[in-house]
């Protein structure tokens, strides 16, 4: 799809610092006509999936009664071994992936009390696991359901209305929200309002609360997938673990990335200070370093001063897209952590807010078919698109990027 272009670096970098960015090729002719080649032609990869999304919802199938929801949680102490797929996974994420029915607070509680042990030792919820380690898991249970007393309070009704306004897709198992920028997905120090807390108002008669399947940064807007049932949580979490979920992000960056389509492959490690946490480019073998891969494609430029890029993360590391774009010299406009170009001035009329949108998510539905949800540009990005004359309806070349 694009020819290989030699990157011109102002100064050479060491082997460990190179980002391994290279152009990706378009699909072969066997996959069908090129998207955009004929008027009205649909990209072959997503054409069938869009049809499935618009088709009538398949009849719901009740999970086998021989495996009730409680069976997902251990009722006695058990010991499990960390698999290759779980290598370098955080302890809390490990429990979420293994037992989707657990609440965030319950996970923190069993870890804090030392009921969970790794190779016989106490751990912190942020510690990383290694393949082959032995994890002792205590008996687990769901938080007791809150008793319903009369009609929802005024505050609960407002929260329900806010969630409904964010909803871009919903069925009996799945909810896709268009999370606004500035609203956190989960709680933290001093955090009083976040998506996980808002979902409390959606507990059903059995006390089941919708569960977060993945996360996006607080200042990033766009598609956030939520499982409404334990059955859906288990399947969707598995889809993320097996990388069956495809995510597309849109961003605005300064300059023009060269080549216009490429792959960024680095190791990332968390660097924490008293008041901030960032991801730094690390070398293979560094403590806490995880491999991260991102594909990017230039969609449209505004006089070579600003560029709209589409991003496809293959892995899901913290701040991965933000750190990767900064690494190749094109940090995302409005990023308070990673934008550090000296003497760069924001063009008039553009808001100094993070220009990053979780544009689209495509993932197999737990009961068959495909979930394909798209989020619109948030207000501050729409304003920038209008001022720069960018056409949001343009074909997105990231659809031709590989899946790995």
Give an account of the 3D structure.
- Helices cover 19% and strands 23% of the residues.
- The chain is globular and about 65 Å long.
- The strands form two sheets. Strands 5, 6, 7, 8, 9, 10, 11, 12, 13, 14 and 15 form an eleven-stranded mixed β-sheet that branches. Strands 1-4-2-3 form a four-stranded antiparallel β-sheet, with no helix packed on it.
- The chain is of the alpha+beta class and 404 residues long.
- Residues 1-19, 26-57, 59-71 and 144-149 have low confidence and may be disordered.
- 32% of the residues are buried.
- Helix 2 crosses helix 3 (104-112).
In short:
19% of the residues lie in helices and 23% in strands. It is an alpha+beta fold.
Secondary structure blueprint with pairings:
Layout: H1 44-54, E1 78-81, H2 91-98, H3 104-112, E2 117-118, E3 121-122, E4 134-137, H4 154-166, E5 167-170, E6 174-179, H5 195-198, E7 211-212, E8 221-227, H6 230-241, E9 246-254, E10 261-272, E11 277-282, E12 290-302, E13 306-313, H7 320-327, E14 356-364, E15 370-374, H8 379-388
Parallel strand pairs: 8-14
Antiparallel strand pairs: 1-4, 2-3, 2-4, 5-6, 6-8, 7-8, 9-13, 9-14, 10-11, 10-12, 12-13, 14-15
Helix pairs in contact: 2-3
